[in-house]
């Protein structure tokens, strides 16, 4: 057993419409898509492999990065390629597949625990499972040429309306163990679990060091866990993998197929049918959200997810679909008069005294962008030895040494999402941090 760590800083946001029924509904959509825009560092115009009208099996490559031809991005389903959607400057935004009624899988062959590191690496690359492994710093696809000091897996999620991993991992112990065995070929594996949870996939795990965490969000963020278990120093590399992606890797090892099935939650105040759904990666969300009028559909959680269309597709790494009301109505003198309850850390509003009550939230920021002041708010919700305000200001100033000294290698957008939520100055903290990470990566 590894460390037991209790965190006090952070903030839990409770939102109406979270999935309360833990029964899982199987959902199949007519179309699925993989979006190159989901990946940082990939060329905006990757090399497309099948043409429109071509048939593919689940696990067949759809495209690859021209700078890294061995990194293929595979189809989550079998069917016909029906669209290769392009955006400005012919950037590839989506590759859409019309799914078969009976799914066919490309056979990669099984690998047991005795397989060598080279065999596992080749299998992950050719199947497209390598894209599930992300590298820090910068949160980009892991480079097989690098040697990570460790692989980290956060076994729980504390973001608003996140899935309960006791539900997600139930009955998948063999696949999770096989996935951990594969990842352990590259470095030591650390798995973090919530304190007091009884999840057999983690309790009976071998080949990994298991740590226990408690505390409010962002205690479930893998970046926070890395910081408290084995912080990233300059020149070091660590890899991270989502537990559901470990399951996909494990099934590839056990059965030789790329089965991109995952369990997601659909929730939010305007979600028609909140709950747990078993879907394929890149699922079309149109029928999942129903007739969600005047709503924003978010692939991911409400703090760091991506806005998509009502007939859009779930992101490559996302396990949540959040549906909240558009906040395009404004309160006259809302800063002066008593306002409706909403999640807040400000004691000037009633919401700060109702923290155990789920709120009907919307996307209104309740203020405009203003002067960036030092308030101490960021530090209250970030359980890391990082000075977030100074870091963001160093990024805005393009101060390379300042960014490096203030810990930019340890954080990614989701780690500072709460800082953006509590920000009185209404700064775009996550977008600024991504600009800084991209700048540092280019300089490196």
Topology:
Elements: E1 4-6, E2 24-26, E3 31-34, E4 47-48, E5 55-56, E6 61-65, E7 68-74, E8 79-86, E9 92-99, H1 117-127, E10 134-136, E11 140-141, E12 151-154, H2 165-168, H3 173-183, E13 189-194, H4 200-203, E14 209-214, H5 222-229, E15 238-240, H6 243-255, E16 261-267, E17 275-280, H7 286-289, E18 295-299, E19 306-308, E20 320-325, H8 377-381, H9 388-396, H10 400-405, H11 417-422, H12 429-443
Parallel strand pairs: 1-14, 2-17, 12-13, 12-15, 13-14, 16-20
Antiparallel strand pairs: 3-9, 4-6, 5-8, 6-7, 8-9, 10-11, 10-15, 16-17, 18-19, 18-20
Helix pairs in contact: 3-6
By CATH, the architecture of the domain at 4-24 and 109-255 is named 3-Layer(aba) Sandwich
Approximately how much helix is present in the residues? 10-25%
Kindly provide the radius of gyration, computed on alpha-carbon positions and rounded to a whole number of angstroms. 21 Å
Shape: globular
By CATH reckoning, the class of the domain at 4-24 and 109-255 would read Alpha Beta
Task: Give the N-terminus to C-terminus distance in angstroms.
Answer: 36 Å
The main β sheet shows up as:
7 strands, mixed
**Strand runs, count:** 20
Count helical runs: 12
Q: Quick check: average pLDDT?
A: 93
Low-confidence segments? none
Assembly type of the shown chains?
single chain
| Strand ordering within the main sheet | 1-14-13-12-15-10-11
Strand content: 15-25%
